Amino acid sequence: MARYTGPKQKKARRFKEPIFGFSKALERKPYGPGQHGRSRFQKKSEYAIQLEQKQKAKYTYGLLERQFRNLFKKANAKEGVTGENLMKFLEARLDNTVFRLGFARTRRQARQLVTHKHVVVNGIVVNIPSYALRPGDIISIRPKSKGVDMISESLNVAPKNRYNWLEIDKKSMSGRFLNYPEFEDIPENINVQLIVELYSK
């Protein structure tokens, strides 16, 4: 399965946000990478600003270009606001939901749990990170995997029922995808309107 394997901290510094989780590098150097990273006079074109938002969304949720474009087409075909639909579909991915439920500390960890068959959806093992959840789906940790230290350690520090579109039971290591989130409830700082404008050109 294709995924981004390049330097994470450079990307976090480029967007000036810890898009891959806590970043010591970003705290030490809160400016862009490279020799022009400190420059205050970086005038960006409209296209560059739009592209930056698309790239931020891709790296945040762990998608490559083809996956992201296909998801955008799906969002555009669905009734409603395209940008909001796109974010809802991104949030409904299995790897993202495993992360939101607190089974993993980062989306990369969540992706690893899914691909290694530690996650069960509605009683069936699913090892596809991009699996699209539907309202009412139950996500749980496979019984044989409940002793995995990484999962229990992550659950210990995860707040209970942090997101109102998810329901979690830490004791049983399971959760429910109640519904697609409202756009304003999604915590990511992504300007989806710029992404829509970019793809509409």
In short:
This protein has 201 residues and is α+β, with helices and mostly antiparallel strands. Helices cover 43% and strands 8% of the residues. The relative contact order is 0.14.
Throw out a few tags for this protein.
201 residues; alpha+beta; Structural Genomics Hypothetical 15.5 Kd Protein In mrcA-pckA Intergenic Region, Chain A; 2 domains; 9 helices; 43% helix
Q: Within the largest sheet, what's the order of strands? A: 2-1-3-5-4
% residues in beta strands: 5-15%
Mean pLDDT value: 86
The secondary-structure class comes to: alpha+beta
Give the name of the CATH superfamily of the largest domain. Answer: Ribosomal protein S4/S9, N-terminal domain
CATH C-level of the largest domain: Mainly Alpha
Distance linking N and C termini:
30 Å
CATH architecture assignment name of the largest domain: Orthogonal Bundle
The secondary-structure element order is HHHHHHHEEEHEEH
Rg calc: 18 Å
Q: Per CATH, what is the topology of the largest domain?
A: Ribosomal Protein S4 Delta 41, Chain A, domain 1
Taken together, the total number of domains comes to 2
The biggest beta sheet reads: 5 strands, antiparallel
Record field, number of beta strands:
5
What percent of the residues sit in helical stretches (DSSP H or I)? 40-55%
Q: Quick one: overall form?
A: globular
If helices are DSSP runs of H or I spanning 4 or more residues, what is the number of helices? 9
> Are there runs of 5+ residues with pLDDT below 50, and where?
none
